[in-house]
Each structure stands twice: as structure tokens, then as C-alpha cells.
Amino acid sequence: MRLCCLAIFLFTLGILHAKQPLKAPNQTLNQIDEAFITPQEYGQNLYIYPRSIGCIKCHGKYGEEVLLTSYTHKNKKKNIIVPRINNLDFATFKNVLSKDKGIMPKYNLTDEEINAIYLYISSKNKTPRE
């Protein structure tokens, strides 16, 4: 867990995108490459722990449709269902994240963060894109 947090911190600072990797005098490039997280792992970390409440809290572990809550209004049962997101095309996914609408929080994610989350969540789609 500490390695993931450190990697996210370094990634945010841009160190992981440096043209020449930082390395200790006795480290090989393979040892350095193994120490860093993949873009998909970065996306997974953002999905679970973005800037406030995690996507996982409402969209579930894999971005499937989720019953968030049920309540009764005027003697009728109502459900709040969070839509499936792991089957969206990238343009739709990005567009939804940039809107400030409904109960979905606006996270003000960077393009790089949106790309990473999309990479992670779309890898969890078990059916063809609709």
C-alpha cells in the first residue's frame, strides 16, 4: 500500500514521466521499471481513491450497474440506480466526468487521470461495448 501511495505521489509530481528515470547508483533499469505502477494500476488507485469519495463507493468494484439506495416516497418504493460505466466509449466517459449534474460529484480530473481511470474501468467490461 505504501508503494502505491508513493508511486501515485511521484506520478503526480511528474517524476514518473521524466525522460531519464531517476535511479540509485546500483539499480538496473529493470529494477526501476518493476518499482513503478502501470497506467492501469494508477487508474485503479484513482478509481478507489480520487480526491474525495471514490468512484468505487457508488459504481462498485468493476463499474457495473449498482443499486445505491432505496427509499419510500408517497407510499411508493423508489430506487437510486447508478448506471454501468465500464462499457462506455471514452468520449461519453470523459463528458460525464466533466458535467456538474445530479448526485455525481465533479472531480476536476486531469486528462491524464481520466485516461487512467478509463483504462482501468474499461478493462473490467466483460461484454462488448454497446
UniProtKB/TrEMBL annotation:
Signal peptide: 1-18
Keyword flag Iron: yes
GO molecular function per UniProt: electron transfer activity; heme binding; metal ion binding
Keyword vocabulary terms for this entry: Heme, Iron, Metal-binding, Signal
Domain Cytochrome c: 38-125
UniProt-listed Gene3D superfamilies: Cytochrome c-like domain
The keyword Magnesium is assigned to this record: no
Listed name of the protein: Periplasmic protein
The organism of origin for this protein: Helicobacter fennelliae
